[in-house]
Amino acid sequence: MEHLSYRHAVRRRATGSKRKALVGVVASGNLEVLVERVLPDYMCEVDIRTAAAGFGEIWRLVVADFVERRSPGGLKLSINDGGARPDMVSLRLAQAVRAVEGGHL
Amino acid sequence: MRNWNSARTARDSRLQAGARYARGKLVAAHDATALLEAVLRPGDRVCLEGDNQKQADLLAAALAAVDNRKIHNLHMVQSGVVLPEHLDVFERGIAKRLDYAYSAPQAQRIAELLFGGKIELGAVHTYLELFARYFIDLTPQVALIVGVSADRDGNLYTGPNTEDTPTVVEATAFKDGVVIAQVAEIVDAVPRVDIPGDRVHFVVVAGKPSYVEPLFTRDPAAVTETQILTAMLAIKGVYAPYCVRRLNHGIGFNTAAIELLLPTYGERLGLKGKIASHWALNPHPTLIPAIESGWVQQIHSFGSEVGMDDYMRARSDIFFTGSDGSLRSNRAICQTAGLYACDLFIGSTLQIDLQGNSSTVTTGRVAGFGGAPNMGSDARGRRHPSEPWLRAGQEADPEATAPLRRGRKLVVQIGETFGDKNAPLFVERLDALELAEKFALDLAPVMIYGDDVTHIVTEEGVANLLLCRTKDEREHAIRGVAGYTEVGRGRNAGMVQRLRERGVIRRPEDLGIDLLDVDQRLLAARSVKDLVRWSDGLYAPPSKFRNW
């Protein structure tokens, strides 16, 4: 099990007031994202636990794009990865932000 | 004095040689190989019927069993290389040269036989192109075809899976060739005459139905959420703005997802009646919910699909049916319809390069392309206007004088940036080029040429290549939807941003797609059982798709 962690300074606080949300499932090719509003408004942290080792560079790029595109200030996202491809990871991260903003799944 | 009827004389002597195995036109299954040895001559051009669906399986086995000292060097001109027997004939030296259109299941073995010099490859065609050559320079001397039933005069019922048969018979029977049909049974009167008996010389009684592959069935339960996202992007980013009413869908989970989203997502967007009403399409089970919800006005089909026959019989307002009530399909005509009367083709692929060239040939697999190169091309002979065609033409060439401007067919490639086994969809160089070099082919097997592709849809967004003005813009439009593949990571962020501002690249958020909607619950059917329910119990899925 590999453990990766990325911290970014973020321009904007994620909107909404929900404290936490959970999206996705732990299954092969899928992932679960727990999002919690626990950090200062200018911070975002993404914590990843994955069984697929050696993809650190891709994770770094996916997380950097996510932060750039969604401005998830104040959020800590914890990922339980079941070997998902980058397309699924990007989708789940974006969904996690929408969920904590108060959107409905 | 020249003999102007030598081919007819030759055919008559072949018929005479075959007649000793026949009673009238009927031949027993165990005499099929002897019949072929009597009728065939070394070097003949032979069409062994089979495409991506139905197969003349008994005749294929009979041909693979002929004595190769008597029959050899045949030139096979056939739609599909699908059954093992289709390649056994090359391995045994019965056949030497091959011209074909589709080969997915045997793609690897074709590559091996090419490499071993057992096959001389003519070309990998599109269906319509191969059919065209049947009438010009690849006319078969012998056609081995397949039907459901026949009467004693040789009248054939080919039923819902009529597919290629009328075209193959037309080319062979009217040019002094011999037509041999296999059928499951002999009946007193066929349900309808698909092929008149005077075009059929021998009928081999197989005693059982021929093999048909359920190639167009996709289980809704296996549709992933990224596929749902690509489908939403296609509907909102392509179908809606161009008002695409007349279209063709290729095979695959992305297009199946589009079909399953029409009655839900499409309905919510208010698109019912405005898009996706007239189709050139095989009877995809995943279209059932859209048909039942009143989205679809008319469908013409290349072939049938296993389990759909009763449903189509009960929905004759939608499908083309014969005097017996069952579906009549016709591949050549449907391919023509797809080329000239559809405004959009959308399909999946395995590799796309930076020019937008697309191919399903990868290292070690020489798959044919079936109908995609035809449907996925702009018909330069088209002369009738339609809203999507005119708009696409305008986007491609805004400066041209409108009444003199050609429209453009929308040709869309759709997929996730990473495919099966994490293979990247986007590559710097197609594997097809390597293959062309290895076998010294004049043409690399490209499925859809980049200059025909108008849009690429991935989970990252829609790239509209019609709006690209330079080679560099086009390359970056492609990189901009290529995700985390090496091609995608090679993008210049500033350039991609400028293309996005111009609407060349549109992200889900640019199109107002809420990613929380990307959920399997958005599919109108979430299992094969749901499809059966939607069909009122008329759809009878094959056993491999049943888990209840």
Any overview of this molecule?
The complex is a heterodimer of chains A (105) and B (548). Chain A has 2 helices and 5 strands, in the order ββββαβα. By secondary structure, chain A is of the alpha+beta class. In chain A, β4 (43-50), α1 (56-70) and β5 form a beta-alpha-beta unit. Chain B is α/β, with parallel strands linked by helices. Chain B folds into 2 domains: 13-205, 3-Layer(aba) Sandwich (Glutaconate Coenzyme A-transferase), CATH 3.40.1080.10; 220-531, Glutaconate Coenzyme A-transferase (3-Layer(aba) Sandwich). Chain B has 19 helices and 22 strands. The N and C termini of chain B lie far apart (73 Å). The model of chain B has no long low-confidence stretch (mean pLDDT 96). The A-B interface holds A 29, 58, 61-62, 69, 85-88, 90-91, 94-95, 98-99, 103-105 and B 224-226, 229, 416-418, 422, 458-460, 483-484, 489, 509, 514-516, 518-519.
In this structure, how is the largest beta sheet of chain A organized? Answer: 5 strands, mixed
Give me the side-by-side strand order of the main sheet of chain A: 1-4-5-3-2
Q: How many DSSP-defined strands of chain B?
A: 22
Instruction: Kindly name the structural category of chain B.
Output: alpha/beta
Number of helices of chain A: 2
The CATH topology assignment of chain A is Ribosomal Protein S5, domain 2
Instruction: State the low-pLDDT regions of chain B, or none.
Output: none
- H/E series of chain A, N to C? EEEEHEH
- Round the mean pLDDT of chain A to the nearest integer and report it: 92
* Shape by Cα distribution of chain B: globular
- Principal-axis shape of chain A: globular
